[in-house]
Amino acid sequence: MIKVIIFDFDGVILESVDLKTKAFAELFKPEGREVVNKVVRYHLMNTGVSRFDKIKHIYKRFLKRELTRELFEKLCDDFANLVFDGVIKARYVKGAKIFLQNNSTRYRCFIISATPHKEIRLIARKRGLSRFFKGVYGAPYKKSNAVRWILRKEGVLPSEAVYIGDALSDFAAAKRNGVNFVARVRKNHRIFSGFKCLKINDLIGLRAILKNNFP
Description:
- It is a single chain.
- With 215 residues, this protein is α/β, with parallel strands linked by helices.
- Helices cover 49% and strands 14% of the residues.
- The longest helix has 21 residues, at 69-89.
């Protein structure tokens, strides 16, 4: 029986993935269309990776230029400014809000996100979501470590937890800890082809899905 549910945030709780895709495109627009196309493709294939790691990768692999600490911090700040208001206003993934309202006392719920820790906690507060979650973890916390901490803190077996995510980093974090995984798929469905896991289009009827698949 499932006791703990771990949610990714962007693309699982809120429909905010496209906002971040546009932000990366805008951030690197001065580098030209070819670079922007590479950046967007890389971002979409690695949606669960933190912006910190993505920016470092882009400079090392695509731009092949030194990334100073000052420039890195500026790019991170610029990215946050591009997305924050949009995330605050983003619509919920279908079924997400009603599931949390009706089931956050039935299950112990957590968020693990690639968004910076302070930022994701602030977003959760401003969206009125904090009351639904026992814990909210963001970068630089590693997702697999956060899953392990939650299991240990809550005293539950891996079989008693499920991770709902939309990125391969979510899948990897779940599998490294032996936790059940559910993929929320949409435009990203190709990244989960060949992986054996339960796939859902949204969170409508999530409680019944959990009961039927993880009794």
